[in-house]
From TrEMBL:
GO terms for molecular function: ADP-heptose-lipopolysaccharide heptosyltransferase activity. Keywords: Glycosyltransferase, Transferase. GO terms for biological process: lipopolysaccharide core region biosynthetic process. PANTHER family: TETRAACYLDISACCHARIDE 4'-KINASE-RELATED (PTHR30160). It is an enzyme of class 2 (transferase). It comes from the Bacteria. This is MurG-like transferase. GO terms for cellular component: cytosol. The keyword Lyase does not apply. The keyword Glycosyltransferase applies. Its EC number is 2.-.-.-.
């Protein structure tokens, strides 16, 4: 009997978002696929993280739950899931919404986190739970516990992101134009307590450019205004402003070609780590052991005070520059 013999033929993974969480959860799909190559893997996801699983070699079917679709959209989504007749559903998100999705699929088995790690009483909706584990363990390793629960034995934390040909060509041309593998300075973060001071990001980018590095600024549309100002205050040939201008496939393709990533605790940090790029990660209240970039060579810069409404204000530019030099050594 092999490890794959105990794994059901049809498995659905529920990890709706966000970018970093979906990136880490892919390791579970990879472990299951290695254990049983003929496995059918489905994935339930929201719009933002769709490009990370659509067309992925480890994922056979993607079920998109569009945000803003209302009751009609939800009913259509659930109907699509039920029609697939999955044998087991893995709820890697551990909240009530994802647990409800798992329960509504109609599968005889739904697996969630143990009671101590689950949120919003989501553990009550599952027929099975993974064994109690360390809440501070890296999230990618916690995702692999679900693969182990089904019988997978090779739990190597592998990550692979899809390659879109047009995005790859775009990124290759951009890096050729820059003349060298750039450093990405990713501005902003989805959670306000995780955000660094915008002016310090601008100062950091200018200083790195003055030292001869090619810089690409990345981030969301909400960061556009000050990113444009940062570019205007430095050598335009050295700093390329891409904030709010890249698709997710373009971001992934660009990050594959970086020499270094600098940014806060946010999804693109995990994308960079999955691309085997060293990260200088700025952390405030969150635990970098649990949600930091996974893998060797990363450098964490922690805020000296982690309480209050703006803990990241305690991180100075000089501390980040020192971390950059350490990551490059």
């Amino acid at each position: 009997m092999t490890a794959g013999d105990s794994i059901p033929a049809r498995v659905l993974i529920v990890r709706l978002g966000a970018l970093g969480d979906v990136t880490g959860a892919l390791a579970c799909a990879g472990a299951l696929r290695r254990a049983r190559p003929d496995l059918h893997v489905g994935w339930a996801v929201h719009d933002l993280a769709l490009p990370l699983v659509e067309g992925h070699p480890w994922v056979d079917r993607v079920h998109l739950w569009k945000r803003g679709g209302g009751i009609a959209g939800l009913l259509s989504f659930v109907g699509e899931l039920r029609a697939e007749r999955y044998d087991v559903v893995l709820d890697l998100q551990r909240i009530l919404k994802s647990a409800l999705v798992a329960r509504l699929c109609g599968a005889s088995r739904t697996v969630g986190y143990d009671r101590a790690r689950a949120k919003e009483l989501s553990w009550l909706l599952h027929s099975e739970h993974i064994a109690p584990g360390d809440r501070r363990a890296p999230m990618i390793l916690q995702a692999l516990e679900f693969a182990a629960h089904l019988g997978a034995t090779d739990l190597t934390p592998m990550r692979e992101l899809p390659r879109e040909p047009e995005a790859e060509a775009w990124a290759q041309a951009l890096v050729a134009e820059l003349g060298a593998a750039p450093i990405a300075v990713n501005v902003g973060a989805s959670k306000p307590p995780n955000r660094w001071v915008p002016e310090r990001f601008a100062q950091l980018a200018r200083t790195l450019a003055e030292h001869g590095h090619s810089i690409v600024l990345t981030g969301g549309p909400e960061d556009r205004d000050w990113a444009a100002a940062a570019c205007g205050a430095a050598d335009g040939a050295r700093i390329r402003d891409l904030v709010g201008r890249t698709s997710i496939p373009q971001l992934v393709s660009l990050y594959r070609r970086l020499s270094l990533y600098v940014g806060c605790d946010t999804g693109p940090m995990h994308v960079a780590a999955a691309c085997d790029v060293r990260c200088v990660a700025l952390f405030g209240p969150a635990d970098p052991q649990r949600t930091g970039p996974f893998g060797p060579g990363h450098v964490i810069v922690r805020a000296p005070e982690r309480g209050g409404s703006r803990p990241m204000n305690g991180i100075e530019v000089d501390a980040v520059l020192t971390a950059v030099r350490s990551a490059q050594s």
